[in-house]
Each structure stands twice: as C-alpha cells, then as structure tokens.
Design a protein that fits this description.
Arc Repressor Mutant, subunit A, Rossmann fold, 7-stranded mixed sheet, 3-stranded antiparallel sheet, 14% strand, binds S-adenosylmethionine
Length: 407
C-alpha cells in the first residue's frame, strides 16, 4: 500500500475513528518498517547500548506504536482545538449558537458580526472535534449539552475558563523551556493576561456553586461566626472571585483580599467596584508571609502550592489567626501517589503545574515548588509542620479538595 493510497483511504473512512485507518496501516508491513527504520532521524529514540536496532525492532509492538501515533494525532487536534474554543468564546460564536438550532456559516457570521469564510472554517474544525454537530447542507448545531459547559459561567459544569488559562499558559512555552535549563522560576504576573483572566474564570464556577453552600458550612463553627460578623482574609486572591463571593454571602463580615501581584490586586479592586462591593471589601498588595491584621478565617484558594514558601505562609497565618480561628485550604484535586493521578484531570494539572505553578514557586524565596498535584499527605506535612494541630478534608469536587486546619 503506497502513502498516497493510505491518504486516500484516510479521507474515505470519513467519520470513522482514526483507529480504523491505523488498522489498515498495521497491515502495511513496508510502511511500518519505514517508520521504524527512520527512528534515528528523530522518529523514535536511538537504540541504547547493548540493544541492536534489529533486536529492538523485532521486539517492538506494532499495534502499540500505531495506537500511540493515533493518540498523538488526536492530541495535536486537541491542542489546536483549544485555540478554536477560545476564538468561539471571544467572538460569541457559542453564545450565538446556543439554542439557535441548525445554522449555516453565513447565518452565524451575520449574528456575530464576523466574516463568513473564517466562520465556515471554524465550524468545520469544531465539527471534526465533535464540539458542534454537522447536520449536512452546510448547517451546524451546538448541542444543548455542549452549550452549558461552553457558555454558562454560573454552572459547575462550565469549562470555558480552562481553555483560556490553557491558551495563556502555552504562550510561555519557549520561556519555560529555557527555565528547564537554568532552573530559574517565572512569576505568576509575568504570564499573558489569558492566564490571569482564565484562572479567574476557571475556578469561579466551582466557588460560586460550592463555597457558601457547602464548603463554609462544612468547617467547624465558621458559618455561624461569618453570619454574625467575622474577619476574613483571602490570601493569594488573584482577581478576587472568591473574595467577592465571601463578601456577598456574609454581609456582616469584613473581607480583605491579599495578593503578591500588584496587577491582580488592581483587577480585583475593579471587580469589586463593578459589583458594587467596593465599600464592603478591601484588596491590598501583600504576600502570604507579610499580610497584616487579625482574622477569624484565613483562606488560600488554589494558591498555596504556587507559593515559594508554603510552610512559612502557614506559620504566618498562625500568627494572624484570632483564638480558635480557622485556615481553609482549597487546593487542586490530587491523590497522594503519582500513579493515582495519571488521569485526564491529572494530565491537565501536571501540565499547568509545569508551565505555571512550579515556575511561580521557583520565582520566590525558598522555592519549595510543591506542584499542583501535591496531594493531601504532603499538604498535611506542610501545615502541621508549620504548627497547626490538625488538618481535615471537609469537601471535594472533581477539581478541588477543601481542607480545614486548626491551630
Ligand atoms: C492560581 S492563582 C489563584 C488565584 C485565586 N486565589 C483564584 O482562586 O482564582 C495563584 C495566585 O497566588 C498568588 N501568589 C503566588 N504566590 C504568592 C505569595 N507568596 N503570596 C501571595 N500571593 C501569591 C498569585 O499572584 C496568584 O494570584
């Protein structure tokens, strides 16, 4: 079978899974041999000492190799598909398709003030990845089940922010590759705006749906205090999504958001003003080791692992907590053993951790670099090592674990 014939068959197979096509390649021994023999040119790792190329080729599992090629091709589509999702979000293409039924590219372009030729290509790419359904006759539909994760930022199923932070993260690919050589860090605030804005949008639906309704009530005696009026610090607050939700839910309490990144604090102040909450919430530039005041509740939302000195941060919290105060720690969902994190959520978090969290921690003093998949056991070591007497898991979601630490 020639390469030209294989290419033709690929297109003839149309909507069938790539594995069908790969199955045909597997029967094509000459092509497989070409792939294996070209490994020295970068296709496969060079033979290691003591293993002749021939013996490695004989032992190689052809099906496994081609299955991996299929996976990698799918990942290329997924990587580029992420950019397609961000375009769809930014231009309102998903929102215009939501509930609209079948639309042509021209109709969608007219509804969104965009150019038909670009929209047609985007719709085709989205249909190829299964995000929209191709109905024939040039018409495309966004299924209701896809519209919620892609357009409804009040839903716990919303994933749109994850694409924005992912796109922003990969902008730093070359810089982070350089950091692999130097070992230096890369500060959170040095990333593209899509990282900071995407982070806010990624985590906010979870906070909106769980913070006041289940996470705070799960803490020992905290909800009652917040209802009558308590002092809350949200440390590493970013753009202040969690800070504003706390201020809204507990109007008798005072809430202060702290972050080491000046630009994030300015964005948080603007969010508070836009929400009409500027008189109820304060934001200040301070690190987890320098923030001031005394608090009944200190919160770290998805940021302890980003800090250079998480143990020092916890020691500082102990100094700032009122008697019988509480530290609430929200961290990315992770199991303790790496082998138990080898799943789609772990794949996303380890990659975010490589591009964002680990470089952020390494950019600061101590540079503990816990990583986004530290797991509860490692967090317990840090928190109790800093002087807290207990750490208890009080809640979890597919993306977060919620821990309560008591002095
Ligand atoms: C992943 S973001 C989380 C932001 C926010 N808490 C949220 O959930 O959307 C991590 C945040 O921690 C902040 N940060 C990192 N190290 C810090 C430190 N040592 N002290 C205070 N803030 C820090 C970063 O500037 C960033 O805003």
């Amino acid at each position: 079978m020639s390469c030209a014939h294989l290419a033709k068959r690929f297109h003839q197979l149309g909507g069938q899974p790539p594995m069908t096509f790969l199955g045909e390649i597997l029967t094509d021994r000459p092509l497989f041999n070409v792939i294996v023999e070209n490994r020295g040119a970068g296709c496969l790792p060079a033979a290691t000492v003591g293993q002749s190329p021939n013996s490695r080729r004989e032992r190689m599992d052809e099906a496994k190799l081609m299955e991996f090629v299929g996976q990698a091709v799918g990942d290329v589509g997924a990587m580029l598909g992420g950019a397609m999702v961000v375009i769809g979000d930014k231009l309102g293409l998903y929102r215009a398709m939501n509930g609209a039924g079948p639309l042509t590219a021209a109709e969608l372009a007219a509804r969104t003030g965009t150019a038909e030729r670009y929209v047609r290509e985007w719709l085709s790419a989205q249909a190829a990845r299964g995000y929209v359904t191709y109905e024939g006759d040039g018409k495309f539909t966004l299924p209701d089940e896809h519209a919620i994760p892609l357009t409804d930022e009040t839903s716990p199923a919303c994933v749109i922010g994850a694409f924005e932070i992912a796109l922003g993260s990969v902008y730093a690919t070359d810089t982070i590759a350089d950091r692999f050589r130097s070992g230096e860090g890369f500060a959170w605030g040095a990333h593209h705006q899509h990282v900071l804005g995407g982070c806010e949008r990624f985590f906010k639906p979870g906070y909106l749906n769980h913070l006041a309704s289940s996470w705070i009530p799960a803490l020992d005696g905290v909800e009652a205090k917040l209802k009558v009026g308590a002092r809350i610090a949200d440390v590493g607050c970013g753009h202040g999504a969690s800070t504003l939700l706390l201020a809204e839910a507990y109007p008798e309490s005072t809430v202060v958001g702290f972050d080491g990144h000046d630009g994030s604090v300015q964005a948080a102040r603007k969010r508070a003003a836009d929400a009409g909450l500027a008189d109820r919430v304060d934001f200040d530039v301070a690190t987890a080791s320098t923030f001031s005041g005394t608090y009944d509740l200190v919160c770290f939302f998805d940021c302890l692992h980003d800090m250079g000195d998480p143990a020092g941060a916890c020691r500082h919290v102990l100094e700032r907590l009122a008697p019988n105060g509480t530290l609430m720690l929200i961290e990315p969902y992770a199991n303790d053993d790496l082998a138990d994190n080898l799943n789609p959520v772990g794949a996303a978090y380890y990659a975010f951790s490589t591009l964002l969290c680990t470089p952020c921690s390494l950019s600061q003093e101590v540079g503990a670099a816990l990583g986004a998949q530290a797991g509860e056991a490692r967090l317990r070591e840090i928190v109790t090592g800093a002087g807290f007497s207990s750490l208890r898991r009080v809640a979890e979601t597919p993306f977060n674990i919620v821990l309560e630490a008591k002095p």
